[in-house]
Amino acid sequence: MKKLYIKLFFILFSVAVSAQNVHTETFESLELSGELNSERTLKIYVPDSYKLDSTRVYPLAIVLDAEYLFDVYVANSKLFALRDKAPEQIVVGIYQNQKNERKTDCGVNLNSMLTESSSKFYKFIKNELISYIEDKYRISPFKTIVGNTITANFSNYFMVEKNPIFNAYININPSYSRDIAELFNGKIPNLNTNTYYYLNTGNYNGKKKDKFIESIYYVLKNFENENFKYKYDTFSNATKTSSIGQAIPSALAHIFAMYSSISKEEFDENIADLSPAEAIEYLEKKYVEIQYLFGANLKIRQRDIFAIESIILDKEEGDYLEEFGKMINRLYPESPIGDYYIGQYYETGNNLKKALKYYKNGYAKISSDDPNADGYFQNVERVLAKQKSLKGGNEDEAQEDIIEDDAVDESNSGEGK
């Protein structure tokens, strides 16, 4: 019984700690004055890390139908951030089911245009809510909007405006306007910034709606604009409710693919055919864009460095090994890997003195109890053997090179870092 109480305490404590990051507040909207409900309840999630770094900014997600979409989205956003698959986000949910507001908030007329009421809700989000959140919190340029059925359809009207304020659109089982394809045709071909789009359906939607969503997918599929990045899912063994739990993580994986470390798909599509110089540039640009859009000040991940290793080694006779090694030394000065690549560059070019210097620099960074220490020292021994061979087996001269290089190391300890 005592163990049960302790376990229950920790469960309740965990829930309480999690709840500390979420609060609700009431927002009095001027744009919605005269409507069914001008006082809107907002639910806001702010990551733990927000208070730890006053310079860091966060992507923003606006979640419609917050009564049932907010918690699912927040849980997935936290999981993706913990797994380093997406940046941490500030999430703002809008309650729309207290007085059945969602129908007036997100309705369209027979011409597939927003009604007077939904235009006001549109302006509330664009002119009031976004500004309010940006004034209150540190927000990065990247913004996502999430909706389900009619609220999903409503979100598309932000994308087809002249200057979209959102970068990503998550359409869960969208109840598309009749003429939505025409609106897409007038906008998507001309998008000049990366726009991420997600939609899903399934047979649970009914045959007519399912087919219409599928037809919109084919419309999206035919656009030849590399800035428009879409994903379409069909869930065959699902319900309308369970599809929400499937759609949100799938959408996050699509939207934040650029944030994640390099996948096999990304390598094959974007990197495999690059030259060494282009591969290094691609890697550096990827992280510059991550910093700008998501506010995540990441060093280039070591696994991403190794992802382009084969290109550096196998193309152009290893001419970019030195540049590659210097980049690693700047990012991970405590690691021997950068010195290893620079040493390999000089060894390949038969500059054995410099090769020996960098192999020794790298070896000095390895703890004596590291299981890789002996293997790494073999680089030093191999170069010494080559020097000895070139000097006709004169071991004393090879030893003089070691002493000379030690002096160089002390006077130029920052070289190549």
CATH superfamily of the largest domain: Alpha/Beta hydrolase fold, catalytic domain
Structural class: alpha/beta
Q: How many domains make up the coordinates?
A: 2
- The number of distinct β-strands equals 8
Topology order in helix (H) and strand (E) letters: HEEEHEHHEHEHEHEHHHHHHHHHH
CATH architecture of the largest domain: 3-Layer(aba) Sandwich
Radius of gyration of CA atoms, rounded to a whole number: 28 Å
Termini Cα gap: 59 Å
Strand content: 5-15%
Q: What is the percent of helical residues?
A: 40-55%
Which CATH class of the largest domain is shown? Alpha Beta
Identify low-pLDDT runs. 1-18, 405-417
CATH-defined fold name of the largest domain: Rossmann fold
In order across it, which strands form the biggest sheet?
1-2-4-3-5-6-7-8
So what's the oligomer here? single chain
Envelope shape: elongated
Largest sheet: 8 strands, mixed
Mean pLDDT: 88
Number of helical stretches of at least 4 residues: 17
Structure description:
The structure is a single chain. β7, α7 (207-221) and β8 (228-234) form a beta-alpha-beta unit. The chain is elongated and about 95 Å long. Strands 1-2-4-3-5-6-7-8 form an eight-stranded mixed β-sheet, with helices on both faces. It folds into two domains: 19-255, Alpha/Beta hydrolase fold, catalytic domain (Rossmann fold, 3-Layer(aba) Sandwich), CATH 3.40.50.1820; 264-411, Serine Threonine Protein Phosphatase 5, Tetratricopeptide repeat, CATH 1.25.40. The N and C termini lie far apart (59 Å). With 417 residues, the protein is α/β, with parallel strands linked by helices. The protein is built from 17 helices and eight strands.
